[in-house]
Structures are given as C-alpha cells and as structure tokens.
Amino acid sequence: MDLPTTTSSPLGSRAVVAVHPSGDAAPELLDPTLPALYIDDLAAVRGDGVFETLMVRDGAVRNLDRHTARFINSAAMLDLPAPDTGRWHAATDLALEHWVASGGGDGSLRWMYSRGRETTGEPTGWVTVAPEPPAVARDREQGVRVMTAQRGYSLDITKDAAPWALVGAKTLSYAANMAALRYAKSHDLDDVIFVGDGERGLEGPTSTVIMARDR
C-alpha cells in the first residue's frame, strides 16, 4: 500500500496504523496526512485510555515483552477489554515495515488504546511511529536542569483501597504532567522529577528516572 509518510509537522515523516481492537478487521495502514481520531472518541473527550511508548532502533522495538505486560496491566486497571496482543504486535510490525521502507531511522513507537467513541462504545486503538524530537537528543548530550515536585498522591494507596487512583497505569490523561513541565520551564528549568513520601524519587512527567550508583 503506497501512502505518503510526510506531514506538515516539524517532526517530519511518520507511520500510522489503526489497530481495530474489537471486531475482525485486520490492522490498517492509514494516511498520516489525514485525521484518524473522531471528535467523540473518549481518548480526546476524557483522556480515557492507556498507552505505551517503545524505543525504535535499527528497525525494531526494544523491550517488547515488558511493554506488552505493562500495557495489559494498564488496560486491566481501567477495565478496558484485554488487549489482543497478537493484533497489537501485528499492527506494530506493519507500522515498522512502513517506517523502515519509507526511510525512517531511530524513532519512537506508541501504542494508544482508547475506550472508544461515545456513539459506538467500541474500543479504538492506533500504533504510530515518529522520529524523536531534536530536543531529546540534545537533552541526552547536554543534560537538563530539573526541579523536584510532589506527585500529588501517595504510592502507598492500594488498588483495593482506591482503585480509581490508577497508580501504576499509563493513562492518556497527562494534563497534570504537562502542567508540571510548563511550571518548570517558566522558572528557567528543563524538567521535573516527581517525589513521593519521604522524598523518594519517582519519575518525570514524560520520562523515567534512572539512578547510577558509585559514579
């Protein structure tokens, strides 16, 4: 299927695949220059869904099994239908095939799984591949200036006590995370490290915190 891969985005080319999580339709390669999300999709209306972001190197994704396990766990925490991993992996392969064929190099692949449209109640999902923003490479090379900030909830909340807190789920609702980033940038800083009780380091708004010991 010959589809354009360039968009007006400064990020350049990308691949987009509709997963069709429910029903019998196979994953479908989409034209990335056209809209793929309906206005009544709960991903946009409520942020009601989950996602995973996978690193693409040499035409393949890294840590597929770990991301798959976390994706399944996140979906279960939101009471979404269990993802058909075979279907999501097939959609991933299709997106990567198109990405590599169009000359794409290292990038970022994202799974997005929504509760679906308000009018149908059927889950929706997409796989996208895009280049990493230039700022990511720059930050890796030059480092970043960060502030610490309270996460806003306790990690000691159990799933039984407050399952609606969705602690540990990667949901599409990132408004608070982006607000934290904007706050940091308004104070001439680059990023945030969220901390919990006892100043325990947790994560960044859109990043993972890794500690290197004895260095």
**Which strands sit side by side, in order, in the main sheet?**
2-1-6-5-3-4
Unreliable stretches: 6-12
Helix content: 25-40%
Structural class computed from helices and strand pairing:
alpha+beta
> What's the CATH H-level superfamily name of the largest domain?
Aminotransferase class 4, branched-chain amino acid transferase, N-terminal domain
Terminal Cα span: 50 Å
> Mind telling me the C-alpha Rg?
18 Å
One letter per element, helices H and strands E, the order comes to EEHEEHHEEHEHEE
The number of strands is 9
Report on this model:
By secondary structure, the protein is an alpha+beta fold. It folds into two domains: 118 residues, 2-Layer Sandwich (D-amino Acid Aminotransferase, Chain A, domain 1); 65 residues, D-amino Acid Aminotransferase, subunit A, domain 2 (D-amino Acid Aminotransferase, Chain A, domain 2), CATH 3.20.10. The protein has five helices and nine strands, in the order E-E-H-E-E-H-H-E-E-H-E-H-E-E. A six-stranded antiparallel β-sheet has the order 2-1-6-5-3-4. Strands 7-8-9 form a three-stranded mixed β-sheet. Helix 5 links the parallel strand 7 and strand 8. About 3% of the residues have low confidence.
